[in-house]
Design brief:
Blueprint: E1 2-6, H1 11-23, E2 25-26, E3 29-30, E4 33-38, E5 51-56, H2 62-69, E6 75-78, H3 84-89, H4 91-112, E7 117-123, H5 146-163, E8 168-174, E9 176-177, H6 190-200, E10 205-207, E11 214-218, H7 220-232, H8 235-238, E12 243-245, E13 249-252, H9 253-264, E14 272-274, H10 278-284, H11 294-298, H12 307-318
Parallel strand pairs: 1-4, 1-6, 4-5, 6-7, 7-8, 8-12, 9-11, 10-14
Antiparallel strand pairs: 2-3, 11-13
Length: about 325
Amino acid sequence: MRVLVTGAAGMLGSRLVKRLLDQGGLAGRLVTAVDLFDAFPCTPPYAPGIEIRTFQGDIADAAISERLAASKPDFVFHLASIVSGEAETNFELGYRVNVHGGLALLEALRAQGNRPRFVFSSSGAVFGGPVPDLIDDDFAPTPLTSYGSQKLIVEALVQDYTRKGFIDGVSIRLPAICIRPGKPNKAASGFYSGIIREPLNGVEAVVPVPRDIVHSSASPRSAVGFLIHAAEIDSDRIGHRRSLNMPGVFCTVGEQIEAMARVAGPQYLRLLRDEIDPAIERIVSTWPKGYRATRAKELGFTAEADFDEIIRIYIEEEMPDGLRPLGNR
């Protein structure tokens, strides 16, 4: 059984690949081959007995998508994307990668005719203000950013290509994924991770929005779990509505910071500085605060119980030597 992962060099993509190889199977079937694609080089993991191929290029290039689809993958995880902040500032690039890239891949898969399960990594950015405190499953998506519009367009394509029988698709709308390891990226939501990650590593961080901004978060561990579950769940249980709001922890930025003080200690708060960034505030203020995620929960999707748990997961997975002592700094 063959799996294709686009965006495989990214944070979620690489973790998804590791999880797939560690468990060795998907939906009760043995994984025998994995194709990895990204605009950046992919380092193939060590996986004895499993064929691993890597591809690099432009997902919007029809020839690239045709190469990816030629092996008729049984499962496709489409994570390749230009992130929110960059999609807003670089309009052409955002639409080329996020929309034309998604369409090129779907068209290539349609031409092969083997109807793979297609899991699309969407976003809560498909919603735009004004929004209620908790969005239910019937709330209409009306994005107020280019990124959100691009994600919603591909959701519609996934819906229609599924209806026509070209793929068996599901789109999962991810909350803010944190705490992301590594360096900051151009995602507008990146500060949700940075204001915890940086202090825990002894580095100062800026809080670029008011502390009463509310958001929904899930750990990278949960996000990978969402993707795997979306691939394995029975199609009949999903029904004809192929977009799902994922669960997450509903809290303010201030409550997130308070969780850091509880889990790691109040000394790390000294490394935070409030400095409003109007561009970031404008983008994230249009996004949902949280989701009821009733359908997703009924279908078995789960996330952390609170932000304390998200911080503990980061420390466990990314800080094997423990917290960085601050001393008298």
